[in-house]
Automatic annotation (TrEMBL):
Top-level lineage group: Bacteria
One MF annotation (Gene Ontology) recorded for this entry: CoA-transferase activity
Record keywords, A-Z: Transferase
Taxonomic path: Bacteria, Pseudomonadati, Pseudomonadota, Alphaproteobacteria, Sphingomonadales
Cited InterPro entries: CoA-transferase_III_domain, CoA-Trfase_fam_III, CoA-Trfase_III_dom3_sf, CoA-Trfase_III_dom_1_sf
Protein name: Crotonobetainyl-CoA:carnitine CoA-transferase CaiB-like acyl-CoA transferase
Species assigned in the record: Novosphingobium chloroacetimidivorans
Amino acid sequence: MSEIEPWLGPLAGVRVIDFTRVLAGPAASLALADLGAEVFKIEPPGTGDETRTFPPIRDGESHYYLAVNRGKKSIVVDLKSAEGLALVKDLAAKCDVLVENYRPGVMERLGLGYEAIKAINPRLIYCSISGYGQTGPLRDRPSFDIVLQAMSGTLAMNGERDGLPTKLGIPLGDLVGGINGPIGILSALYERERTGTGRHIDISLMDGLMGMLGYIAQLAFFTGQDPQRVGSQHPNLVPYGIFPAADGSIVVACLTPSFWSRVCRSIDRPELCDDTRYDTLEKRRDAREEVNAIVSAFTQDRTVDELVAIFTEHEVPHAPILGVTEALTQPQAVARQMVVEAQHASLGPIPIVNRSIRFTDAEQPVPEAPPVLGQHTDSILADVLDLSLERIAELKAAGVVA
């Protein structure tokens, strides 16, 4: 009796040739791998993706590389050789998607630009991810997460009111490529079902961060002024932010009028529910210091656990401030299986963060561990490109693959 094949995800059968490195591009191809696509990660001979050398490193494997390359297959190819270039073109001919995050112009110089690949495979969706996009005066400028945060307006509004701007703790300037890239790719795959042809997708990380400004941008349009830094508070909603506790601090978020009455009852000040000094969003915003002082007077004498119990009882939006380790091991994360164990080729069993998109009517298997450098070179050449063992041995001897 044969075993039932596991459901790999809605993108099972979709093949991706992945020329990405570091973070923005790998985050995009990671999302596709999580959804079931077969991702062939092209890595150069020697060190491979630069992040393989980023410390801390354990037994030769970098924490950074492991974080964004689960479920992919690594093939080492020398793109500077004519034979290596021919190999990846043959592979692109058999793929549905190409993702790259080099600076604009690099793929063209390699002979792997959109027009060259389109001539080989007109059905292929080609996604380019770069700091500033394929057009504009900054297209050739190098970009890093903190630079993108600065250029997009994100950095200026993040931090305490009277302090210096502070970058976001997570590298959202890069990770936005892992959001917008897959959105563009998936929509192009859907369109291809009707048209039969692929597209070139131009993802700018700065565009992506600007798109996330949301109501902050609209506030600037309305007022004609830059929104000011308010730390962990909200520019228009009060109370909203971090409040002191006897043994730490806690987040309280009052978004609507109904939540204000819940806050008042939870802090034993029910008379404030109808106090005309605070009965609208605008009045509470204008009396920010007074309102925050009232809430702080209650929270500062109680422990975080006590406050969690009180705010839970009164259905006030709140949260203890968890460190990363505690966040990953909290009951909700455990219930959602957000950390799973994968079998790594050299490290053995390792914990990895699980997929963040789930499907209720089917369950995907645990993601495969990130590959060691060149782990799938032989299998990709043999199973996808139908090369003989003799030919693979010749390519290895010539240094074309490894």
